[in-house]
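QA checklist item 7 of 12: single-chain prediction sanity check.
[x] sequence parsed
[x] length recorded as 146
[x] structure emitted
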Amino acid sequence: MKKWLLFALTLVPLAAGHLIDITTLVPVVGSAAFYLVPLAVTAFWFWLGRQYAKTDWGPGRAMLIGNAIGLISLVLYLWQFELQSSETRDVFWAGLSQKYFTATPLFLLGRFARLFPHPVTVLMLLAFLLLAAVFAWGFFSGRKEK
């Protein structure tokens, strides 16, 4: 697979998060999307990690490139919600920062995140780490077969 396509496919969680956001208010469809799309994105992320394993990139470079959008989303989230007040928060950047995390199975991580003083921030960090771990699992399982 071409490298530009691999990089383009790293945008799938943003698109999936947007899909979840726009279907949230649709009865039945919104609830199904909230649970099923993140599971599909997680499976896709494993597959994408396996595709990155077929490139000549080393593990560090592949992990950085494959998870760059998630890392950027996490930095944007921290900037908008931890370093800005509600008066200075930019609605566009704040909304965009959450699209990536909406496409992760947050419902699996919520109980654990509530144990911390800033549960939503912890939830975003856990969501990023979950997708990074799934990507790494796919990458290293793909490298074994290579």
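[x] summary fact logged: Residues 3-145 form one domain.
[ ] second reviewer sign-off
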